[in-house]
Amino acid sequence: MEHKTGLEDYYVIRGQKKMRFGYTTGSCAAAACKGACLMLLGKEKLTSVPLMTPKGILLDLELHDIQISENQVTCAVKKDAGDDPDTTNGILVYATVWKTDTAGIVIDGGVGVGRVTRPGLSQKVGEAAINSVPRAMILREAEEAAVSHDYEGGLKVVISVPEGVEIGKKTFNPRLGITGGISILGTSGIVEPMSEKALVESIHVEMKQHFTQGEKYLLVTPGNYGADYLREHMTLPFERNIKCSNYVGETIDMAVDMGVKGILFVAHIGKFVKVAAGIMNTHSHSADARMEVLAANALRVGADGDTARDILNCNTTDDALDILHEKGLLEPAMQEIMERIQFYLDHRSYEQIKLGAVVFNNVYGYLGKTRDAGELIQEIQKQDEMLKLQM
Question: Which strands sit side by side in the sheet containing 154-160, from one edge to the other?
Answer without folding.
Answer: 64-68, 72-78, 92-100, 154-160, 105-109
